[in-house]
User: What shape does this take?
Amino acid sequence: MMKRIKKYKFLLNTIILLLIVFNINAQNQNANWYFGNQAGLNFTDVNQEPNALTDGAMNTDGGSASISDSDGNLLFYSNGINVWGPDHKTIKNGTGLYGSTTVSQSVLILPNPSEENVYYVFTNQGQETGSLGLHYSIIKLTNDDDDNDDDNDDEQLEYCNKKKTKVLICHKGKNTICVSVNALQAHLDHGDTLGSCNDNNADDDELEFEVTAKNILLLPTASEKLTAIYNEVDNSYWVVSFAPSNNPAHNDTFYSFKVGSAGISYVEESTFDFLSMNNDHPGGQMKISSDLKNLGLTHNTLEIGRDGGLDGVENVFTFDFDQVTGIVASKKVHSILRDQNNTIELFSTAQGFDYIHILLNGQKDPINIIASLYGFEFSPDGDKFYISTKEKIEYNTNVVSPYLNVLQVLYRNSQKYDPNYYPIQQIGNEGNTQVYSLQLAMDKKIYGTDNTGNLDKITNPNELSLNAGYAHDAVSLNGKSATKGLPQLIQTNQDDTGSKDSDDKKSVVQGNPFANELIIDIINIQSIEFYNQTGVLVKSVSNTDLYDSDLYSIDTSDLTIGIYFLVIMDEESRVYNETVIKTD
Assistant: This one.
């Protein structure tokens, strides 16, 4: 029995190690950014400022996507229409994708989680006239010689090209080179040998990325909102599109697609009531927090009544996100008001503008409502989000005027902070500078595009108010320029900053592996969910089944032997993820 326990513990430690390694590798996939007008950044050393890259070939006013390998080497990047490789030339068949250079989130790139060197590129044309909706394409690393290399007579030769006119040899035992077939014998006569000097140094020209399947339809209509997140519970990805359900001009539904071992599958749609879109400002960003608990977006709506009165204005929303099912739930509208003294207030409610209208009805003092936004990004700890603003509208007169700033919103877990802290703060304070996209990088800082062509930076996004450290025009792009968009990145959990309670830093499971009883060491459990290795919910326990205690004993006699992923939620809605093993 002891040998079996040691075996299970070794397996559990291996699983945990693999999850840690995956998190590091997944972050390295975000090491190189290409965006804007031939602009780029490299984040290989997260302890240093990013280095500007000036070799990009891409021009785009909107979104882009880049992906690197686990060592941080660039693989390819895209503006949603073309795909460029590490040599900054379009890859094979890498043109004509159904994306857009003006859409805010026009493209994202995901690795196939179960097949190495295979990638999915999701492209989105928003709601431009004639738009084709949401599609995906497949990119694979292919071998040039695969197509025509059927000859058995020359199996010992390693060709450098399809035409078989050049051969790999080891020159003087040191250098692997390509030589003409006509010159091969002369090299062999002088002591050179067939093949590479080292099998690990074969000529890379044999391999290249190629778009092998192009523009496969997922949704016939879509908005400019498209995002994705890695789900470590079952080694898959969630892709979420915000799009219409019935009326092509009215966005109201979140479509969740799962990218896993079975490929891409449509899983869930979540529909809500939204006001009509403000067609003057259709852009903006949507993100999922890196702890997979919330989804948030900027979505500009505006309704003027027949009498000229303001019937409605809403523009920033958060939701609960279920990392197992992909369901988006619990809409909350965050309304931002400013009075004549420049005092800024936040109202967060499920009722939206109706609630604000009741509060302001009969108000004589000038009250401005933030009318349009663009950028959205969560802090690494998930407690806050950041938005970039563009306009305000006066409630009583409907006069629209510029309001250019970056705001921090503390929208959850406020009980953990100073009760005197106000939940919204202006941190940008550059009234003449428009900030567009906001993007969390692998160095745990948030970067933003502004109309100087360089980048702004939020140095400590987990900190409150001005302690977040907003720096305007902080990152030079060495003569290249940013526009509105920054690369779409696929986040993994970056919350290791110590901002959560100490219970989050240690395992809350006692006696793992377990048999017919599992002990949970945590105060005030709300629910416990058990998922098997394929991501299927097999057991759920709610707080009504548990006694109030610091330790909870869960009867697990109904579970079969195997590995399970636990999602534990306490009464403060904090989530704990654990991997456990059931023995006999």
